[in-house]
């Protein structure tokens, strides 16, 4: 029995603009919002939208991501028929190759999709923070009798040139596609989320693979080819929260927005649209009597004796007495020792900040500004000073670095 729709989740991105945070980690596996990883959002959207068959295409630094997804049980995707499947590049009779582009990645997994004989395929990105009901998107696609639909968001005109843009008529039918144009004709930015009729997608993937001059990319090749052939293409206007967290400032800002759900539009406390994640297995957190916590998210296993203001602390973080954490994202297992000051920064997993050390620098208006970043497993020595623009990497050869 075939599935109505299968999701293909592109999760192989290197996330090079996240620098130290993706030194040993694929971008979709980067922690977010206290208890999640970025990939939790598209996976949760799928199960909340009634999509129970998901292929996750991995490539760069896949180990943590593969281990985290496991059998899909946290997202109710451990199914006998369907469920979640991790799909790395693999060796075939004709040889093996890395995924050369987004379209080629789907092409290499045609046999996986055909196993479920779907009518539709939805292509998702594994590196965005977005809460979206894909069933509404699919209903739009059906009502328009479309062959291809893309989710779009209106962006400010002054920022439009940064995006791939869909130019549409009064019925939302796509008439032109502009890739980061100097002179935008539209402010409808592609979210990189597509729905195809499977027979159409397969046809264009095979034609694209046969073209030796193709970049094997949806934006640069597949979508222009669909337009060339006057296919029925429509833009679905999405009005919820969506953020590409591809840079350090945008990742920091999105985490800070979690602390203000009424104004930011991202509500992780919504019982009607839960974001699911793998349980840390840690005990509850503990806040000492002399500790101070203001407008912060404190998750499992944290031990707080110091001061935490407007920050997100992931599982197992310790803040010792006299330490200050402010406007910061502190990932799991990190220790902030006595007297240290950590402000306006992102600290990765299993970092130690020494006594009386200073990391980052606060801002008067809590703006994005310059965000200091410390990679996993780094030790910042007692009394050290790490400036607001600093990017501290792990010493890969030694497995940790003393600063």
Automatic annotation (TrEMBL):
Pfam families: Hexapep_GlmU, NTP_transferase. Keywords: ATP-binding, Carbohydrate metabolism, Glycogen biosynthesis, Glycogen metabolism, Nucleotide-binding, Nucleotidyltransferase, Repeat, Transferase. One of its GO terms (biological process) is glycogen biosynthetic process. One of its GO terms (molecular function) is glucose-1-phosphate adenylyltransferase activity. The keyword Mitochondrion does not apply. Residues 290-366 form the Glucose-1-phosphate adenylyltransferase/Bifunctional protein GlmU-like C-terminal hexapeptide domain. InterPro entries: ADP-Glc_PPase, ADP_Glu_pyroP_CS, GlgC_bac, GlmU/GlgC-like_hexapep, Hexapep_transf_CS, NTP_transferase_dom, Nucleotide-diphossugar_trans, Trimer_LpxA-like_sf. It catalyses: alpha-D-glucose 1-phosphate + ATP + H(+) = ADP-alpha-D-glucose + diphosphate. SUPFAM superfamilies: Nucleotide-diphospho-sugar transferases, Trimeric LpxA-like enzymes. Alpha-D-glucose 1-phosphate binds at residues 99, 164, 179-180, 190. Its EC number is 2.7.7.27. Belongs to the bacterial/plant glucose-1-phosphate adenylyltransferase family. Involved in the biosynthesis of ADP-glucose, a building block required for the elongation reactions to produce glycogen. Catalyzes the reaction between ATP and alpha-D-glucose 1-phosphate (G1P) to produce pyrophosphate and ADP-Glc. Homotetramer. NCBIfam families: glgC, PRK05293.1. This is Glucose-1-phosphate adenylyltransferase. The gene is glgC.
């Amino acid at each position: 029995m075939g599935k109505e729709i299968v999701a293909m989740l592109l999760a192989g991105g290197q996330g090079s603009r996240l620098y130290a945070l993706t030194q040993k980690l694929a971008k979709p596996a980067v922690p977010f919002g206290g208890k999640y990883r970025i990939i939790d959002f598209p996976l949760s959207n799928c199960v909340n939208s009634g999509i129970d068959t998901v292929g996750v295409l991995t490539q760069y630094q896949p180990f943590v991501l593969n281990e985290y997804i496991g059998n899909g049980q946290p997202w109710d995707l451990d199914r006998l028929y369907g469920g979640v499947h991790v799909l790395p590049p693999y060796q075939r009779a004709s040889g093996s190759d890395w995924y050369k582009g987004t379209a080629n990645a789907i092409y290499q997994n045609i046999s996986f999709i055909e196993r479920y004989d779907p009518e539709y395929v939805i292509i998702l990105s594994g590196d965005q923070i977005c809460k979206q009901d894909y069933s509404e998107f699919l209903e739009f696609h059906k009502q328009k009798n479309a062959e291809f639909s893309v989710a779009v968001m209106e962006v400010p005109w002054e920022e439009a040139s940064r995006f791939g843009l869909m130019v549409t008529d009064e019925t939302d039918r796509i008439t032109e596609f502009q890739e980061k144009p100097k002179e935008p004709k539209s402010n409808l930015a592609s979210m990189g989320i597509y729905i195809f009729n499977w027979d159409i997608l397969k046809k264009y993937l095979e034609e694209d693979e046969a073209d030796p001059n193709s970049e094997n990319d949806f934006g640069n090749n597949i979508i222009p080819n669909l337009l060339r052939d006057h296919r029925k293409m429509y833009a679905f206007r999405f009005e919820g929260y969506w953020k590409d967290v591809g840079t350090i400032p945008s990742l920091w800002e999105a985490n800070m927005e979690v602390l203000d759900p009424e104004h930011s539009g991202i509500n992780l406390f919504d019982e009607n649209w839960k974001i699911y994640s793998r349980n840390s297995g840690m005990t509850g957190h503990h806040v000492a009597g002399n500790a101070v916590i203001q407008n912060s998210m404190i998750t499992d296993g944290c031990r707080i004796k110091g001061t935490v203001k407007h920050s997100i602390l992931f599982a197992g973080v310790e803040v010792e007495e006299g330490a200050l954490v402010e406007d910061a994202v502190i990932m799991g297992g990190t220790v902030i020792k006595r007297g240290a000051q950590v402000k306006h920064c992102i600290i990765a997993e299993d970092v130690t900040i020494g006594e009386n050390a200073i990391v980052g620098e606060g801002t008067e208006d809590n703006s994005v500004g310059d965000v200091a970043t410390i990679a996993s497993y780094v030790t910042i020595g007692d009394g050290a000073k790490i400036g607001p623009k600093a990017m501290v990497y792990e010493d890969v050869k030694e497995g940790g670095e003393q600063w």
